[in-house]
Amino acid sequence: MAEEQLLIPLDTYLKVGLHIGTKFRTKYMEPFIYKVRPDGLAVMNVKKISERIELAGRMLSQYEAKDILVVCRRENGWKPVELFSKLTGVIAIMGRYKPGLLTNPTLEDFSETKLILTVDPWPDKNAVTDAVETGVPVIALCDTNNEATFVDLVVPCNNKGKKSIALVFWLLTKEYLKNRGRLKEGEDIKESLEDFTPE
Fold this sequence. Notes:
Elements: H1 10-15, E1 33-36, E2 42-44, H2 46-60, E3 68-72, H3 78-88, E4 91-94, E5 115-118, H4 125-134, E6 138-142, E7 153-156, H5 162-179, H6 193-196
Parallel strand pairs: 3-4, 3-5, 5-6, 6-7
Antiparallel strand pairs: 1-2
């Protein structure tokens, strides 16, 4: 695997277990599975993961931060999502997503979001359902056990591990800021991967 085709060195992806899936595999995720280990765990293709993170970064950067909503029910993702939100200005909902947030204009916190990013389309299914009803595109981090019926862009990865989620959001932060012209050529964000990683 050519390192130059990846966003960061291969080693960094492997160290956080970004490529380790579950024992359960859906038909949606088959194209991203590289092999199945003897213990039954699926291993995803790192090159495809890296390509999809880059693609997600490009897709996100076509929108202003105020028009993007990141949804994360899973506690492992709260810290990275919060830091992503702080650095990019993207709106984030950690914990329970209130159904109707995108569809019910009478709600006090009604949102006219134009793009949704979800850490896991299963626990975040209310947000995905609202997005589908309103025609809002959905980017979702998907593990090998995820269904992706209503997902417009699948980012294959281990969406359960805190280090893995942290790496995805660290990379998405850099990609978003770079593509929006908020980072100069060759400039990097001050925050490290460790800053995105929950204790």
